[in-house]
Amino acid sequence: MKTRNHIITLLVGLPIFGAAAGFTNSGGYASFTSQTSHTSDASPADSDSIHMGTVIDEVIWVVGDEAILKSDVETYRMQAAMEGMKWNGDPDCMIPEQIAVQKLFKHQAQIDSIEVTDADVAPEVEQHINYWLEMVDGSRERLEEYRHKPLSQIRNDLREELKDRQMVQKMKMKLVEDIAVTPAEVRRYFKDMPQDSLPFIPTEVEVEIVQNTPKIPVEELNRVKDELREYTDRVNRGDASFSTLARLYSEDPGTARRGGELGFSGRGMLDPAFASVAFNLTDPKKVSKIVESEFGFHIIQLIEKRGDKVNVRHILRKPIVPDEAVERTLARLDSIADDIRAEKFSFEDAASMLSDDKDTRNNKGLMSNSDQSGRITSRFKMQDLPPEVAKVVDTMQVGQVSHAFQMINQRGKTVCVIAKLKNRVEGHKASISEDFQTLKDVVTQRRQNDRIHQWVVDKIKNVYTRLNDGYQDCKFEYEGWIK
Asked: Who has the most CB within 10 Å: 290, 315, 360, 415?
């Protein structure tokens, strides 16, 4: 299973428009994402310069041989509002421009034979469907009412839209794939930059942990299993539906409000034990046997299989960890910490031999983090650490070993931990000597931005465009739309 905030649910999606408009940034200092979003407090509903409510559909822009309809803009506006998008200008000008720019990239992608398949977008489709369902408290009916179409049509439309967006993204990547930045270029870029213009690098730490999971008594395990057996019996007798019981009793908050439904998932997105049972279900009327995963105990009901993906409902129940078990585990870890301080063995040896955290044990306890560029690093900004770990290491000195403390891990389980602060780099203005990779990312991103922007400008010069009169006074990001 991938690391997730909760259980085996799919990721709650990023807003489709903000994420799809361009590349995300590297280190938070530059971005390909269009400047048309995210910063203003103005709501799309506040603008009345062009938007007139419900109108008969019409062609408002033409780009090459592609038409942009008023309904396209209104659909974009509605979805953006649903996902909390903000604008730093007039959305009635910015939305059609964004759509037009995407059409330029899509047209070039078709010329260059860039393809995106249904399988490529399937996980993202379900991610967004699940996100939208979350926004309406898991109600399929409310989502269909809001979008004025059945869920099957919402899914089909979204699939095509995401295929276009992935195609655009691949086209952008192709346009900048040959950009390489040398150390000399990085030094030149920042050599004459005023000190107060340099990016600020927040405090970063490297942390090692030894984790032990408190042992749960057999009686508690049996209690949870008996509850799940009772739910199965109620479904089989017809006393209650599986989805109703999931809403009432499942301890997976991400899916409980949707009646336990996960959405279509591949094997790699699920806990292995859970996936083994889910993919072997054949009868939607039957309930699975009890499944133990890293998150607790489940029963599962099949909804639909589609190729190499499956959509199921589940009910999760977690055994309660007794206070006595937690205290015993904390005492054991405090004893281990005392032995480490007495130099009987090293923290790294303790992590390798005594920790039950599979994510860090083989790395001598060192926690790992995926940064915004997708690189795996051992450095964490304090806000990226689990809150319990961040609170403990915030006041520690490098090399110090903490007392044992309790936390909820990424799988939702109660665990006990001791931590060692391996390294701390205090917040500072970026410098070539200490932060070369971050500064290189800034320069690379800037060059990519410049090339993408110039490509769009050049493309507009060589393509037919026609805008309705109502757009003649718009302030656009790119020049050349009005000819």
From this structure: 315
pTM, two decimal places: 0.64
Return the higher-pLDDT residue of 80 and 481: 481
Sign of CA dihedral 124, 130, 132, 134: negative
Closest residue by Cα to residue 436 from 177, 187, 176, 180: 187
In angstroms, the CA 231 to CA 244 distance is 10
Residue 142's CB: how many other CB atoms inside 10 A?
14
Q: What is the DSSP letter of 262?
A: -
Least-confidence region, from 125-129, 178-182, 463-467: 125-129
Q: Determine contact, residues 348/418, Cβ cutoff 8 Å.
A: no
| CA-based radius of gyration for the chain | 26
Which residues are within 8 A (CB) of 287 and not within 5 positions of it... i.e. 6 or more apart?
231, 232, 235, 236, 242, 299, 300, 301
How far apart CA 62 and CA 109 sit, in angstroms, is: 19
For CA atoms 220, 221, 222, 226, give the dihedral sign.
positive
Task: Give the pLDDT confidence of 400-441 residue by residue, as tens digits.
Answer: 999 999 999 888 889 999 999 999 999 999 888 888 988 998
* Residue 266 DSSP symbol: -
Give CA–CA dist 230/174, Å, rounded: 56
> What is the distance between the alpha carbons of residues 31 and 22, in angstroms, rounded to a whole number?
8
Q: Give whole-number Cα distances, 43 to 18, 71, 80, in Å.
A: 15, 18, 10
| CA angle 11–12–18, rounded 5-degree value | 115
Evaluate whether 107 touches 157 at the Cβ level (below 8 Å): no
429-434 CB contacts, 8 Å cutoff, 24+ apart = 429/195, 429/198, 429/199, 429/200, 429/201, 430/190, 430/198, 430/199, 430/200, 430/201, 431/198, 432/186, 432/187, 432/190, 434/201
User: What DSSP state is assigned to residue 401?
Assistant: B
Separation CA 204–CA 92 (nearest Å): 42
Q: How far is 300 from 315, CA to CA, in rounded Å?
A: 7
**343 vs 339, 350, 401, CA distance in Å?**
6, 11, 12
Structure confidence by residue, pLDDT tens digits, 65-97: 889 999 889 888 887 876 777 888 888 899 999
For residue 42, is pLDDT > 60? no
Angstrom distance (rounded) from CA 13 to CA 146: 18
Q: Which of 94, 112, 115 is closest to 33 using CA atoms?
A: 94
